[in-house]
Design a protein that fits this description.
Helix content: 55-70%
Radius of gyration: 38 Å
Number of strands: 8
Strand content: 5-15%
Shape: rod-shaped
Number of helices: 8
Strand order of the largest sheet: 2-4-5-7-6
Distance between the termini: 66 Å
């Protein structure tokens, strides 16, 4: 099956590439002059040899690199046979024309460049050798450039796949947190229906309002601290209806931190754990304090309570699903820069502390 290459080709001669290659060609001409003067001992001064090298080498460079770029372009590799013929022909033409140009510039009578002599043959062979060295250099340089381009493309593809995988992982972990909260709330609602229908109805109304408020936020890739604290206000208000006077809470969010971007549903599992495992089993209930602060360029979110504590025998043991998911989400997004620690609170209860890098947003502040 015959296919045609329909990819668009660049138009116009690549002058910038020719000028970039000319720098290396000039350096090679200088090295050739040094080699002829101090190794071959041609009998001429370095400056005359340099002038001759510039004349011959400059012409061979312009012929080979100019025709190559004009015919095959800078992004295509020249076929071996046509390029070999081009090199040999260019070296022969450059030897003749360069020698004549050198004699004219230096006001020196030089042997006829087309005459067959050991010197002319030697200089032609030397020109071919220098051209071959230049070809090897430019060929290696182009190969390295192609390899770098391919490596950059492969790296970009790998980063794209990694971002997609991380996003899928975050969505999966977040989806596990949402039912965790919802099932616990419905279980509490079921318990209230049997002995306090009025409070159950109020709780159901608050739950509906809370779910409406959280639906869009919980599906977003990021939210702000203002939105996150607003959701905690709704959630704790929901829990206060069920627990009554046994639950008090405080939310501490400085105004200058309200628009900081954070992953959604970070505080929800921590506040829920504080209630379920710390305050709910405690007869007199207790207090929850949610706070945000910045220390040394890191955002710290703290959820503390004065409940039963981490190792109290009367504490209900959970699956730690919410805490584990938060750690995995932070690890996926920030690596070792993020951390979640659980510690004892004085004089009673527990403290959960989240620390991770933060980013500001330009969205307008929430009322």
């Amino acid at each position: 099956m015959h296919t045609t290459d329909t990819a668009p080709r660049k138009t116009g001669f690549p002058y910038r590439r020719l000028l970039a290659d000319a720098r290396y060609a000039l350096l090679l001409n200088v090295l050739c002059a040094v080699f002829i003067t101090y190794v071959l001992s041609g009998g001429q001064s370095f400056w005359l040899n340099l002038l001759a090298s510039m004349c011959i080498g400059g012409i061979v460079f312009l012929l080979i690199d100019g025709i190559r770029l004009a015919w095959w372009g800078e992004d295509r590799r020249a076929p071996l046979l046509p390029f070999t013929i081009l090199v040999i022909a260019s070296a022969a033409v450059a030897q003749v024309a360069g020698t004549m140009l050198f004699g004219w510039l230096a006001h020196i009578d030089v042997p006829a460049p087309i005459a067959i002599s050991s010197r002319n043959v030697g200089m032609t062979v030397f020109t071919l050798a220098a051209a071959g060295a230049a070809i090897l250099f430019f060929g290696s340089r182009e190969k390295i450039a192609r390899l770098r381009m391919e490596a950059a493309q492969e790296k970009a593809r790998a980063e794209s796949v990694a971002r997609q995988a991380m996003q899928a992982q975050l969505q999966l972990l977040q989806a596990q947190i949402e039912p965790h909260m919802l099932f616990n709330t419905l279980a509490n609602l079921q318990g209230l229906i049997s002995f306090d229908p009025e409070r159950a109805q109020l709780l159901l109304d608050q739950l509906i309002q809370y779910l409406r408020a959280t639906l869009s936020s919980s599906r977003a890739g990021a939210t702000t601290l203002a939105q996150e604290f607003s959701l905690m206000q709704a959630y704790l208000g929901l829990m206060a209806i069920r627990m009554g006077a046994r639950l008090t809470y405080a939310l501490d969010l400085p105004d200058d931190l309200r628009q900081i971007k954070v992953p959604p549903m970070l505080l929800q599992p921590l506040v829920e754990n504080a209630i379920q495992h710390g305050l709910e089993p405690k007869i007199e209930g207790g207090h929850i304090h949610v706070q945000a602060s910045i220390d040394s360029g890191m955002l710290t979110l703290t959820v503390s309570d004065d409940g039963l504590g981490l190792d109290h025998p009367g504490q209900t043991k959970g699956t730690q699903l919410g805490v584990a998911n938060i750690r995995e989400r932070l690890q996926a997004m920030h690596g070792d820069l993020a951390s979640l620690s659980l510690s004892a609170n004085e004089p009673a209860g527990a403290t959960a502390r989240l620390t991770f890098p933060f980013h500001t947003t330009t969205t307008s502040p929430l009322p």
